[in-house]
Design a protein that fits this description.
Elements (H helix, E strand, L loop, with lengths): L4 H13 L9 H32 L6 H22 L6 H4 L6 H30 L4 H25 L5
Helix pairs in contact: 1-5, 2-3, 2-5, 3-6, 5-6
Length: 166
């Protein structure tokens, strides 16, 4: 069975980022592909969290208090995102226990995961850029709000994997 162009390009991009990714089509590879993708995404967010350490070290004095509070809040929300990715149900058994996944389900999974990949990479880049500068409390709060939106997106991923068959 040949893959649609959009599926092939997504899997090619994913395989370029994460060695050993086979895709979601073969039942045996679904759990492993899902695990590798979630671990890759969590790793990008962990890297962004580590970049906050340098910012914390540079922030000193009473004027930095708001920024330090913002860094702490952002760090906590990023930790929550990482935990949501790493400790999600392994392979989302509701989907991966099915014998056959239809083209529509696969298309939804690919589209969602591709958007999630972009969201994680974008947020991680913004966090690293902020950590390289001297953001104020408001900028850090905006990043934390973005991280909260990302966490809600990660939670919605479960809905796609547990969507009832039509």
């Amino acid at each position: 069975m040949s893959m649609p162009i959009s599926e092939k390009s997504f899997l090619e991009r994913l395989a370029a980022l994460i060695p050993g990714v086979a895709g979601y089509r073969e039942r045996e590879g679904r759990r492993e592909t899902d695990r590798r993708l979630r671990e890759f995404l969590a790793g990008r967010l962990d890297e962004a969290r580590r970049s906050l350490d340098g910012l914390r070290a540079r922030l000193r004095g009473p004027a930095a208090l708001d920024a330090l509070e913002g860094v702490g809040r952002l760090d906590r929300v990023l930790q929550k995102c990482v935990a949501s990715l790493r400790w999600a149900d392994q392979g989302y058994s509701g989907l991966f226990d099915q014998v056959k996944i239809g083209e529509e389900e696969l298309a939804r999974i690919y589209a969602f995961d591709e958007a999630l990949l972009g969201d994680v990479r974008g947020l991680a880049e913004r966090v690293r850029a902020a950590a390289d500068g001297t953001p104020d409390g408001a900028a850090l709060e905006a990043l934390a709000a973005g991280a909260l939106r990302l966490d809600r997106t990660i939670e919605r991923r479960r809905e796609i994997f547990h969507a009832p068959a039509e």
